[in-house]
Amino acid sequence: GDYRVKEIAQDKIKKKDDILQLELIKNDDILAYLGQHKTEQIICGFAMETKNLIDHAKEKFIKKNCDLLVANNLKDPGAGFKNDTNKVTFITKDKIQQIELMTKNNLSDLILKELIKIKEEKHVNSN
User: Fold this and answer.
1) How many domains does the structure of the chain reveal?
2) CA–CA separation, 29 vs 2, rounded Å?
3) What is the DSSP annotation of the chain?
4) Buried/exposed 32-56: b ≥16 CB within 10 Å, e otherwise
5) What is the pLDDT of residues 49-94, one digit of tens each?
6) What CATH number corresponds to the domain at position 79?
7) pTM value?
8) Per-residue model confidence as pLDDT tens digits over 14-58
């Protein structure tokens, strides 16, 4: 979702040339906006990378003002969009934690538990 087509055809695009060129424009960065304007919210971002996972994810975590960033490398076996499993790294202000390959269902539970833990820690530290 980083880019979208600049113009949406109103009618079918007829096949005429061997190459069809589409012009793309950048979408608004919703995560950056939320991070810049957050007050009490807990912000969780996601990063998919193919190179330098930790460096790029840490940079995104800071730039987007996240509380948790869940990063995965599409080149890891079992990770990504085409599987029922994923292998990720959790990045928070205090840690970088490798999460081993697991089902996406179990991973979603783990992400939720991590977000609850972050919320509880913020609540304790604000009192």
Assistant:
1) 1
2) 8
3) --EEESS--SS-----SS-----EEEPP-HHHHHHHH-SS---EEEEEESS-HHHHHHHHHHHTT-SEEEEEETTSTT-SSSSSEEEEEEE-SS-EEEEEEEEHHHHHHHHHHHHHHHHHHHHHHH-
4) eebbeeeeeeebbbebbbeeebeeb
5) 999 999 999 999 999 999 999 999 888 888 888 889 999 999 999 9
6) 3.40.50.10300
7) 0.86
8) 998 899 999 999 999 999 999 999 999 999 999 999 999 999 999
